């Protein structure tokens, strides 16, 4: 069953001159595009408050704070691999959206600590609930055996996937 049109019309080479892996990669990207549109571009329900707009850097910072809890600004910048000034500007924006709180250490007033606010924790809980619902929607149509196969394949992909710069063109 083909759910999506392939991306072949958007790529330079016609199907016949492309490798099987390239063809399958195009199909996979088509599936990802459809999933993205279904899951990420849907409007919130009438009873649901829309999430604040966040840039990619704000989302990364928010995720790191959610994972590590209360951290110093220096530690946050290190974990994000960005200069302290960049982390500070990002935190300024998240504080402005009431998603993060900034405090000074009681032991050393020069140390600035940041953590997710109460509103930020509610937003994270909502994100987690939506992610779980999304995962259930992916697994629900599959039989228990297919789910295990899918999860094993996802583990293999996750373990061996390389960043864009390293992937290159392989057949």
Description:
It is a single chain. The protein is mainly alpha-helical and 171 residues long. Helices cover 57% and strands 7% of the residues. The chain has a three-stranded antiparallel beta sheet. A hairpin with a 7-residue loop joins strand 2 and strand 3. The radius of gyration is 21 Å and the shape is elongated.
What structural category do the secondary elements indicate? Answer: mainly alpha
Roughly what percent helix?
55-70%
Number of DSSP strands? 3
Distance between termini? Answer: 25 Å
Radius of gyration: 21 Å
Q: If you average the pLDDT, what whole number results?
A: 83
Uncertain parts: 4-10
Q: Strand share of the residues?
A: 5-15%
Question: What is the strand and helix layout of this fold?
Answer:
Layout: H1 20-40, H2 56-68, E1 71-72, H3 73-80, H4 84-96, E2 100-104, E3 112-116, H5 118-139, H6 144-160, H7 164-167
Antiparallel strand pairs: 1-3, 2-3
Helix pairs in contact: 2-4, 3-4
